[in-house]
Design a protein that fits this description.
single chain; alpha+beta; six-stranded mixed beta sheet; 36% strand
């Protein structure tokens, strides 16, 4: 009987509580701390893209703001590359934007935008309990491309490598490029077209680079490039001619022979003058 009682678990008196270290209420404080950290970690972040033609108005929405935010602190920032500029801070617009932007808790509005306004606009809302919400708008100010510049070598050696480049710095978003030979567009895959089946090249529409490797005799022609970004009309470069020619082996051999002959005659002249004593007479 006594042995059975020893093996049976002891019942705790009613109302008994176990404390595993720490003062009462420490667990509650820990939960509150973790809840605050979770609120920071779970800060809402939304992102959207927006395009607008140059010199037109645009309204950028602060998706992070909610009507229940109450007396939340709102900040707007502009990021372009590594540069970060404050637009709205401490309850007011900053100097560069004071005459250009209208502020409301839900958005900012530009009366007119230029290409320099392209970039990322960040709205941060800090509410009660340090709850942070953030939204971003990637603004692309649409600008049609200008006239592109084509860099075409005037001559290229058959069997060698030739690089043609097309560039344009004005368009927004950045344009893509096409290349034309004798008025006919070059496809990205030369094997897909009977007109360019014999050519061996690679074409990158994003960078505008056209690389012949190797150059063939059939690659001789008039070349120009075209830039387009779906804003305005495509723009064409000037036309340049590239001549593909074989290496003139016979000419090179003849030039080497003539050079050796000239050096031989010069050496003979020095030897002959020395034998006649011309150098010794000048010394005396």
């Amino acid at each position: 009987m006594a042995g059975a009682e020893r093996g049976r678990p002891r019942e705790r008196p009613r109302g008994h509580r176990e404390h595993h270290g720490g003062p009462p209420g420490a667990g509650l404080r820990l939960l509150l701390l973790l809840g605050g950290l979770a609120a920071l970690a779970a800060a809402q972040v939304t992102s959207e893209d927006q395009e607008v033609p140059e010199h037109k108005p645009v309204e950028l929405r602060c998706a992070a703001f909610r009507s229940s935010s109450g007396s939340a602190r709102i900040e707007w920032k502009f990021q372009r590359g590594s540069s970060l500029t404050l637009i709205y801070y401490a309850g007011e617009l900053t100097e560069p934007y004071r005459d250009r932007v209208q502020f409301s808790p839900t958005s900012i509005r530009f009366g007119s935008v230029t290409r320099e306004d392209s970039g990322k606009y960040i709205c941060e809302v800090v509410g009660d309990g340090s709850h942070i919400a953030k939204s971003e708008v990637n603004l692309i100010v649409q600008v049609p491309p200008g006239k592109p510049l084509a860099h075409v070598p005037s001559s290229a050696t058959v069997g060698a490598r030739a690089v043609l480049r097309c560039s344009e710095a004005q368009g927004s978003p950045p344009p893509t490029f096409r290349w034309y030979k004798d008025g006919t567009e070059l496809p990205q895959d030369p094997k897909s077209s009977p007109a360019f089946r014999n050519s061996s090249y690679s074409l990158d529409p994003r960078t505008g680079e056209l690389v012949f490797e190797p150059v063939g005799g059939w690659d001789t022609g008039d070349y120009h490039c075209e830039a387009s970004n779906n804003v305005g009309s495509p723009q064409k470069s000037d036309v340049f001619r590239m001549e593909a020619s074989e290496v003139n082996v016979g000419g090179i051999v003849a030039a080497v022979v003539l050079l050796l002959l000239f050096l031989g005659l010069a050496a003979f002249g020095v030897w002959f003058a020395h034998r006649r004593g011309y150098f010794s007479k000048k010394t005396e």
